[in-house]
Every structure is written in structure tokens, then in C-alpha cells.
């Protein structure tokens, strides 16, 4: 999930280097100007960076924008030298922490560096025992040798819970995965059918309810709970079949073939008269294959935002020959069949092609085999991402009848368009949800979700609470106040400076753990002086003192070097160094003469 956090006053950039002068040893020199782009919500970080740069001999210009849309427009226009940014590795694997951000033509990349591309690709094929050295080389190149980014800190993941209303033992806090709603229960279980679980998020404009068309804070949690996936992540980032569409999965020898044994107890839900109904359509292999094919294909939908996460998928197919499972060896021990049958109540007696023929209680199953373009063990982490959510082939094809090449945003209405679930004249809910909940309707104030009546019924994964309301509250202080006043039941993202407020409230409980979120400054790599000069970028880099951020946040931030810092211990560390700043600025000034 990409969260670009930035800040301030200017809406247009006109200057890359301001002709103001400073006296240094009796010689007049031009102070280079650095324009910092940010959303105003991150003003505290911007102010710290500004002070550090000014202290080290820079002029600083702030370009604070009020929202993500305005920030993106400024970024696309190149109106910045550095953009204060944040990335959370929601898949729990280091490839996700770099591929989209730093690889040439990545979904969120503005870079083009062949050596970095090669290191990203090499590390993706390696096991954890081998890839540490590769990621260290990547980090050395990305940060210290070429200074494409300047790290600020990594963060904790926190949420405040009203323990008088919720049973806090049922509320998960995962390192990477978005909050899973189906496990949450009330302290008073008699309220499951009558009272809504009330949550909050800051962003009310939803990018898309089609899982492959969004990868941001507006929809990650929502789509995670609306679409089931082939696998999930545990709270500590281990890939698991638990709570997914599969009973078990297996990796064949060579790490290129992956097998998934599908459940038969999930149907798609739809909304009729703002009530969740069972469509009678089972979630099956045809939907899985359709979902994976469109996830990997950048041209399957207009504005596809997640294809690079799935580019290693070569093909997906149904397995109908039971002998294949007996012949294929697992990358662990035994055969693929052994791995798929582990702890099954009923073993596999028959493989079926049609989803409605599956009957797990009788030993009739569907198996999907996915093959990757090359050995790529990290593919499983990507299959746990919300963008790999399983959609209805029948429903999506019936809605997306437009031609992708000639898509007209003013005329064509794609599957997942938020306008179709927004109350008003355009409301026409066409969603089919494979997950535990489905979005019924929304407005500028809240979104209402309903329990899927045909989701793993009478299992531990059946949702406990029937209705979930997500309130849109942009201001952190207002969210905290709503939690303290019992207007919301859970608040994800409690500000670091407010931990004690939650801890000192007897009806509240604070959950916290180290997250995979890293904040950093991204240099403009196509325009401005910083794009041309490594010396200038390195002077900015070594001006950053991470201790000052940690002190400001009362010790509730952690040092970082890159977006893989929370996942791989490279042994690297960034230390502020005024001497190096002076050296690189002198080199830059000499190059200007």
C-alpha cells in the first residue's frame, strides 16, 4: 500500500535554485534550494526536514498540499525536489517493498536504473537465506551510492480498542495484513445481529472496489474483507491457507508450480434492497483463473494499478488428473498430494472441473495449478494481497462490456466504480463479494458493510458480527475523540504522541507492534538539479538526522535505511554527517562552475 505523505503552501514550482547567497570563508556561494512536496497532514515531518536542511546550508521551499489528489498532481507535474513519502509492505515480503517503487516502469516508480532492476529481479528468485546479501547491495546502491531516496524512519502499527464494547481477544493486529473483520466479536455477544461494528478510516473517496484497480489506504482494508484470496498472511507474516479459499496449498519442486485445493463452502454475495443475499453462485476454479489472469495483465482494465505485483504469474489452470498430484514432488517432503491432503477430514478421491460438482465431504475437490514465469517463492505473498482477491467471472464480464482501449471515463461504468455504491441517483450496486462482507452503500459520512450469508457457514471463519460501519474521519484528533466517546469501537493508527491518552483511559486498550511502514523522501529523478547531481542528493541525504524524528515522536519511531529495513537486516545504517554534507555541496558547487 502506498501512502505518500507530504505538505504545504505553494501550488506551483518556479525555481530550482534560488539565487540567494551565503558567506563561506569570505567567498560568496549560491545556496541550493530544495523544494519539499508533501501533504499538509505530514507537516511535522516536513518541518523537521526543513530545519535540518537549513542548518546544513540549504534554502528550503515548502509545497504542502491539502489532500492526496493535489499532492499527486504536483508530483506528476514535477513540482518538487523531494517528496515526503511512505510505503507499507502489506504482503510481508521484501520484493513488494522495492519492485513497485524502484523498478523501471513499476506501478509507483519514477526511476529507471538497470543495475537496480537486475538486483530486484535477482533477489526475487532467491530464498531468505540467500537474498539478504542481494538486498544489501540494492540498498547500498539505492541509498548510499546514488541517493535516490533519503530515509526518515519506520513506524509502529497501533490501534485503540474500546474493550467495554469489543472482546479485545478477538481483535487482530497483524504486521502486514489489513484488519480482518470476521474474527471480531462484541463483549456482549447478544449484540451480533443488532449492533454494527463501527470502525474508521481517513479517506472517503474510494479508488475502486475492483481489487486490481487500487492499492492505497482508501480501499486496502475494505477490499481485503470483501474478497477472499487463495492464501492469507498470519499476524507475523507467514503464508497460510487458514481463512482463505483453500484447504491447503503445495509448492512443487523447483518453485515454479503451485497447487491450491479449493473449499466448496463459499458463495458470492450480492446486495438487493440494501440487504446482503446469497447469489447461489459458488466461488470456484473458473473465478480463480479469471481473477489471476486479469491481475497479471496490465491491459485487462483501464487504470490497472497492481499488475506489477502479479507479473510473475505465467498461467493458471484446473487440474483434473489425480495422478499429477501423486507424481509431482513437493518442495518440502512427499508428493503434492500429501501436502494438499494434510489434516483434511476427507481425502481426495476425485478432481472435478466444474465448481458445482465439487463436494468436499465426499472427497470431490477442485485444484488450481498456477505456474510462474521463473522460480519465484515470493509469489505466495502477492497472492495474499488484496489485489489477488477472487472476483466473479460471470459478474465482472457482464459489467465490463466496454473496450479497454477506448474506455470513456464519462460514459463507461466499470465494475467496482464507487459511484455505483454511493447513495443518490447513480446508486446501482453491482458488487459480487467472495469475502466475509459486502459493501451495501456509502455516502460522504460512512460506508455500510453486510455479512456475506454464504461465507464458510458454521466454521470458525464465519463472520461474528452482521453489520460493519466504516466512518470517514480525516482528522486524527477527531478519530481519537470518537473512540473515547464510544462513537467508534476501534481506531487504527493512533498518533504516536497520543499513546498515553489511550493507555490512561480505563475503557480503552492500546495494541501496538513494529510495522512494515517506512517513511522516506523520494528525489525527483527526471527534472531539477537533484535529478542531475548525485552530489546534491547525497548532501540532502546526509543532512537527515533520524534521532530528531524519534525524539519528536517520543521514542515511538524506529531507524530505517530503505523500504526493506523492516523485513531484511542488511546491517546498514544512515548517520547524519555535516562533514559529508559540506563535501558533497562543495562538489556540487564546483560542478556548477
Features of the shown structure:
alpha+beta, 2 domains, 593 residues, globular, Dipeptide-binding Protein, domain 1, single chain
Describe this structure in words.
- This protein has 593 residues and is an alpha+beta fold.
- It has two domains: 2-155 and 515-592, no CATH class; 166-451, Dipeptide-binding Protein, domain 1 (Alpha-Beta Complex), CATH 3.90.76.10.
- It is built from 17 helices and 24 strands.
- The strands form seven sheets. Strands 1, 4, 5, 6, 7, 22, 23 and 24 form an eight-stranded mixed sheet that branches. A four-stranded mixed sheet has the order 8-21-20-19, with helices on one face.
- Helix 4 runs antiparallel to helix 5.
- It is globular and about 80 Å long.
- It starts with a strand and ends with a helix.
- The relative contact order is 0.18.
Give the helices and strands, then pairings:
Elements: E1 2-3, E2 21-24, E3 27-30, E4 33-39, H1 43-55, E5 59-65, H2 68-76, E6 82-88, H3 99-102, H4 114-124, H5 128-145, E7 149-162, E8 197-201, H6 220-226, E9 232-233, E10 239-240, E11 246-251, E12 257-262, E13 267-272, E14 275-282, H7 285-296, E15 313-319, H8 322-327, H9 336-341, E16 350-351, E17 364-365, E18 367-372, H10 379-383, H11 393-399, E19 437-442, E20 446-451, E21 467-472, H12 476-484, E22 490-492, H13 499-503, E23 508-523, H14 528-532, H15 534-541, H16 546-552, E24 557-558, H17 578-592
Parallel strand pairs: 4-5, 4-6, 8-21, 16-17
Antiparallel strand pairs: 1-6, 2-3, 6-23, 7-22, 7-23, 7-24, 9-10, 11-12, 12-18, 13-14, 15-18, 19-20, 20-21
